Batch of 2 targets.
Target 1
Amino acid sequence: MSTIEEDVTTTRDLAALVREREEELAELKVRLREWEDAFGAIPARDALFTNISGREVKALYTPLDRVEAEGYGEGVGLPGEFPFTRGPYTTMYRTRLWTMRQFAGFATAEETNQRYKYLLKHGQTGLSVAFDFPTLMGYDSDHPRSLGEVGVCGVAISSLADMETLFDGIPLDQVSVSMTINGPAIILFCFYVAAAEKQGVSADILRGTVQNDILKEYQAQHAWIFPPEPALRCIVDMFSWCSTHAPKYNPISISGYHIREAGATAAQELAFTLRNGFEYVERGIAAGLDVDSFAPRLSFFFDVHNDFFEEIAKLRAARRIWARGMRDRYGAKSPESWRLRTHAQTAGVSLTAQQPENNIVRVAYQALAAALGGTQSLHTNSMDETLALPTEKAVRIALRTQQVLAYESGVTNTIDPLAGSYFVESLTDELERDALALFREIDDLGGVVPAIETGWFQQEIASAAMRQQREIEAGERVVVGVNDFEEGSGKIEIDVLRIDASVEEKQRSRMAELRQRRDAAEVERTLTALTEACRGHENLVPRILDCARAYCTLYEIRHAMEEIFGSYKEPVFF
Amino acid sequence: MSENRKIRVLVAKPGLDGHDRGAKVIAAAFRDAGFEVIYTGLHQTPEMIVNAAVQEDVDVVAMSILSGAHMTLFPRVKALLDEAGADHVLLTGGGIIPEEDAAVLEGQGIGRLFGPGTSTEDAIAYVRDWFAQHEPV
C-alpha cells in the first residue's frame, strides 16, 4: 500500500520538476534572445567562425542545445558503462595512464632496434613499428621496385630474419608492440609470431596490435596489394586465428587517422572509420564467427587535429556510436564487444615546415585534446616531421610533451572532465548525427566496397582537402608562420635525419645471404602449400606461419598469394 | 604556337608512396588555372611516367614525392626523359624534400621543387612563367 502512495508522490514530484525545468528553459530562451540581440549589435572580428572541418561553430551554447537530445542516463552515462561516452573503462587514467607509444622505424632492423631500446630507456611504455614503403607494399629490399626506398621512411623487414633482429634483446612477452602494416599485414603478423616463438614466447601471451585495416587503404592511405574480397578474407582469418591462439592480441586497428590526414573532416573521419569497423564485424559474422568471439579485440586509431573541442567530441561520439551499433544492430552481448578502445596520434598534416618549433605547441594542444577525449594510447608527432623522419632530439621532446601532460597538468585526475559542457555535449550529439547521416549515404551507394570501387570515398576526401587548401590560400584560415606571422627569408633552420644510402646495399647483401643459407626445398614446399590454401577456404594464418618459419621472404609470400588473389587497381581521378 | 594553347601537365606519383593528397590538390588547382592535366594515379615506376609523358606530349611533368626517395626518383625520371628525346619537358615537383636536396636536384637540370606550405598559386605562376619562356615556336 505504502509503495503505491510513494510512487504517486514520486510521480507528482517528477511532474513538478519537469514543469519547473520547462519554465527555466522558457525563461532562458527569452534571455538568450536578448543576449543574441546584444551580441549581434557588436561587429565580430574579421575571422572564419567555421572550424577546420568546415563546421559552423556558435559563439555560445546553453542547455537549450541539448534539449532535443536524450536524457543524461542513456546518452552520456558513466565511464565504463554503456554507451561509454565518458570513457571505455570505469577508472580511466586514475588506475592507468594512456600508453605512450611513439611510432618509429628507419634504415635497417639493427638501427631501429637501437632506437627502440633508447625509447624504452626514456620511459616509453610500448613500441610501434614504422615500416619502409617496400615493406608496406609487400616488396623485398632487393626487389627492383624498392630502389631508392629501402629503409627511408621506416624499417625494412623482408623476412623473419629481419624481424628477429628488430626485436633482439626486447622481451616480447613484456612489451606490447603495434605494427603499422596493412596490405601484407597477415604476412608481417606471421613474421612477428614466429620471431616471438624464437624467443620462446608463445602467441597466447602476445600483447600488441597490427593495423590490418585494408578498407581505409583503398579510401585514403593507398598501401594495398590484393583486391577487397581476398584482402577481407585475410582479415577475417586473422580475427578467427587470434581469437583462439592470440587472445590478448588486437588483430586490427580500425583507423581514421589516414582518412583525416588525406583531407577528411572530423565527421567524415568518424563516420568512415566506424562504418569500416561495422563492415569488418559483418564480414566476421558472415564467415560464421560469433560476434563476441572477435569483437572485443577490435581496436581503433583516430587522428587528433587542431580543432580542440571537435576532436574531444569526436572521440566521445565514436565510443557511443560503436557501443550502440554493436549492441543494437549486431547483437553483441558482451560489454567487451561494445567498448571502443583507441590509439590516437596528433595530426601530422597540421605541422608546418615554416618555423618548425611552433609544431611543439600544436602537438601539445592536440595531445591535451586526446587525453580529454579519453584515448588509451598516444603518439605525439615530432616538430621536424614535415622535413624528414624525426631526429632523436625531436622525438624526445615529443615524448616529454606527453609526460608533462600526464604527470604535471593534472588532467589525468578527473575522468571525462568536459562532460556536461553545453558545447562539448552538443558537439558530441552533432557529430553522432552527422556520422549516422553519412552511414545512410554509404548504404545508399551499396555499402563500403562498392563505394570504394566507384571512388566515392576518395572523391569526398579529396574535395574536403581542396576546400581546406582554398581557405588557407585565400587567407581565411590562418596558419601561423605560413600565411600569417611569417618570418624573414622563410629559410628553415633545423637539423634533419638522413638515411644513409648504404642501407639499401646492406639490406641487399643480407637478403642474398639469407637466400643462400635457408632450406630451398622447405621454401618451395611451404609456398606451394600457401598458394593451394588461397585457392580453397582454409584459414591462411597457419600456412603463412609455415612460410615465415622457413624464411620465405615477404615478396615470395605475397607472390604466392597474388597468383590466386590478383592485385588491386585503383579508380584514378582527381 | 597560338597564344591560347593550353599548358599540358602530367601530375605523377612515382614510387611506392600512396600519399596523394598533395598530388590531387595540385592537379585540381592546375586544372582550375586552365592547364590540361593528366594524373597518373599511384605507384608509378619512372619508366611508366616517362612513357605517359611522351605519349601525352606534355610540357611539364610534376612529381609528388613524400617518401624520401626524391634523390633517386627525380634524377631517374630526368635521365629517362632525356633518353626519350623529351629533354624540353620541365620536370618539377613537390613533397617532403629538404631545401639542400632541392638545391642539389636543381643543379642537375630539374626544375623548382616545392615544399610543405606552398601556395598552389606559386606553383601555377612558376609553370606559367616557365612556359612563357620556353614555349616552342
Target 2
Amino acid sequence: MKKFNILILLVIALSLFSVGTVAAQGGTDEISDDEVNAIASQLFCPVCENTPLDVCETQACKQWRELIRLKLSEGSTEAEIKEYFVANYGARVLSEPPREGFSLLVYFVPPAIILAGLIILFRAFKQWQVDDEDETDASVTEASPISASETGDPKDDYLARFEEELRKRD
Amino acid sequence: MLPSLGYGILVITLLVTVYSVAAAIYGETKKSAEMVESARRAMLLALPLITIASAILIYLLVNDRYDVEYVWSVTNRSMPMYLKITAWWGGQPGSLLFWSWLLSTFTSAVTLRKWDRDRELLPWVLVVTGVTLAFFISLNVFFENPFKLIPAGISVPLDGRGLNPLLRHPGMIIHPPAQYLGFVAFTIPFAFAIAALITGRTDDRWIRITRRWTLWAWLFLSLGLVLGMRWAYDVLGWGGYWGWDPVEIAALMPWLTGTAFLHSVMIQEKRGMLKHWNMILIILTFDLVIFGTFLTRSGVLSSVHAFAQSEIGPLFFLFITFTFITSIVLVFYRWVDLKSETEMKSMLSREALFLLNNLLFLSILVVSFWGVMFPLISELFTGSKVTVGPPFYERATGPLWGALMLLMGIAPLSAWGHSTIKTLGRSIWKPAVAALIAPIWALIAGITNWIALIGFTLVALVITVSVREFWRSAQARSKRSGENFFNELRKLIKRNRRRYGGYIIHISMVLMGIGIIGIELFQSDTQQHLGIGDQIELAGYTVQYDRLDQFRHEDGRFITRGEMSLSKDGKDLGTLAPRYDLYPDGQPMTIPAVRSTLVDDVYIILVNWEGITAESTPFKVYHNPLVKWVWIGGYVFIAGIIIAAWRDEEEERI
C-alpha cells in the first residue's frame, strides 16, 4: 500500500513537473476550459467524496484538471485520458462502476428485482381474477364496512358515497 | 455548572423514558390501568425535560460558551444570533437532541389529545415511540454528549470554530427542521401500525387515526427535499439542484416509500385490501427514516472504514436491524388477520393502478438503495472502491419517473373496483388528444429531443386530466344546484380534501417535471477566463465582465465580487454579481448570481478555484432552461398537501 502511495506521489510530482514545463512553452493555451471540463465532469475527484472533478475546489483537483489540459494538448483522446485516470487512481474516478466483473452487479440487480416485482404483481392479478370469477358485484359495495359500522360513521352514508363514486365513474 | 445540569437532565430523561416503556409493557400485559397511566405520565414528563436540556444547549450556544466542545465546534463570535440558535442542529450531538425533542413533542401530542378515544392502541404506541426515544437519547448520553466540556488542562478557546460555511445560510433555519419534522413524524404512523399488530386491531383503524399525521409528515419530508434542492441551487454553486449524493438519496428513500404508503392506504380504506403491504411499507419508511437520519448526519457511506470508525454507526445498524426484524415478525404473526376483505377485480381498476404506482416507487427505491450501498458492497467484497454517480441514477430512474407521470394521467380516470379498456379509453381519449398540443407546440418551438417531447406530453396529460376532474365535478354540481361555479368548486374541495388536494399535488409534480426536463436535457454551460470588458456568449445571452471588487467584510470574510452586465439581442437585462467569500478560518464559499425567469435562468459563478489574476478572472456561466418551474411546482405542491391534510370535520369522526 505504502509503495502504491509513493507511486501516486511520484506520478503527481512528475505530471506537475511536466505541466510546468509545457505551460512555460505555452502549449496548453489552446485548450479551453470547456474542453477540459467536458472530460473532468465525467470524472470524480480521487480524493474528495462524490465531487465531480470539474467543480472540485481543492488544489489537487486543479492540478488534475491541468493534467487533462496537458494530455489534450498532447493529442490524447477522451477515452485515453479516462483510462489514464483509472489506471492511476482506480475505478472510483469514473462516475459509474466499470461494466465488468463484480461491478456488473450494480447494473443487473435492480432490473432483476424490479422484474421479479412485476412478475409477482402480474401473477397476483391473475390469481385474483381466477378467485373472482364466481363472485358477484355485491362484494364491491360491501368493501370494508367494518370500520364504518364500528366507529359510528353511518354505514348508509358510507355506502351512498361509495355508490355515488361508482356512478360518477361509469 | 450549566453543562453538567444539561447532561444530568438528559440522563434523567433516559431513565424516565425507559421506565415509561417498561411500565407500559407491564401495565398492558398484567392489565394494570395504573401502570399504563404511570407510563403515560412518565412519557409526558420526558417532553419538559428534553425541552429544558435543549434550552440549556441553546443558552450555551448564544452565549459563546466555548468551554463546551459542541458550542466551540459549531459557533463563533461573528455568527449572527439566528445562526447560533440554528447551530442546535448544526452538528451531530445537537441534531440528535433535536430529533429526540421532536419525537417527544409528537408523542406527547398523541397521548395528550386522544388518550381516551385511542386507549386500546396508545399504550403500545408509547412503547414504540419510547424505545425509539430511548435509543436516540442514549446516543446523546453515552456517545455524542452535546454538553461535553473541553478536556481539562486546556484553556478555554477565545473563539469557536464556527458553523460550516455551507450551513451559514437562512435556509439553515428551515431546511433541516423541515427534513427532521418529516423524518420524526413518520415514527407516529409506524408506532400505530406496530400497536395495531400487537393488539390485533388489524382493520384500518390505525390508518384512519394516523392519516393526517402521515400527510403532515409527508408534507415536511417533501418540503425538506424541495428546500434542500433550492439551497443547493442557491449556495452550492455547481449550477444544479440535485446531485444524487448519498445524503440526498438518504432523504429521498423514505419519501419514496412514504409516497407509496399514502397511495396504498387508500386501497385499504376503500377496499380492505393490501393490509400486509401497508404494514411493510410503513415499516420500511420508518427504518429508512432512521437510516436517513444516520446518513445525513454522518456521511459514513463514503467508506466501510468510516462506518466502522464511527461510534454510533454500528448502533444505528443494530437499531435498524432490531426494529425491522421485530416488526416483520409481528406482521407474520398477524398474517392471517391481515387477509384482504375483497379481491382485485380488474387490472385497470383504480386499486390495480395504485399497486403499479407502488411498484414504481419501490423500483426507484431499489435503484437508489442499491446505488447508495454498492460502493460499500464493492469495497467489502473486492477491496476496490467505485463511484455510483448521477448518470447511473438518471438512466435507471428516468423511465420510472416517466411511468409514474403516465399513471398520474390515467389512474384518476379509472374506477374503484372495475374498469375495462373500454371504460378507461372512453374517459381518456379527450384529455389525451388535448395533451398532444404540448408536443406539437414544442416541435414548432424547435424542440426535437424525443425524451423532452414525451415528457411534455405526459405533463400536459396530467394537467388536463387533473384540471378536468375539478371542472367536471364543479360544473355538474353547479348545474344541479344553480350555484356559482367557484362556490361549488370550493365546496367540492372541502368535501373531499384528500382527493382534490391529491390532484393539486399531481399537477405540482408535473410542474416540477417541466423544470427537471428543462435543466436535465437542455442545460448548457461555458467556462472562460475574462479580462475587464470581455464577453461570454451563451444561449443567445451576452455576459460582459465589468469590474472586480475585493474587500474585507466586517464579519471577517474576504469577499471577491465580480460585476457582469447581462444582455440579450442588445437589450440590457441588468447586472449580476457572482461572489466568492473566504471565511477567516480558510473555508471558501462560492455564491452564484442568478437571473431567473419562467423561460430560463442565467447562472454565473466566479470560479475562484482556478485562480484570479489581475488580467483574467475565470467565470462559469450556466444556461438553465425552465428551472424556475421546479420551485413553482414546489409552492403548488405545498398548497396541495395543506389542502389534503387540513382538518376535515367529516374525517374527525374516525
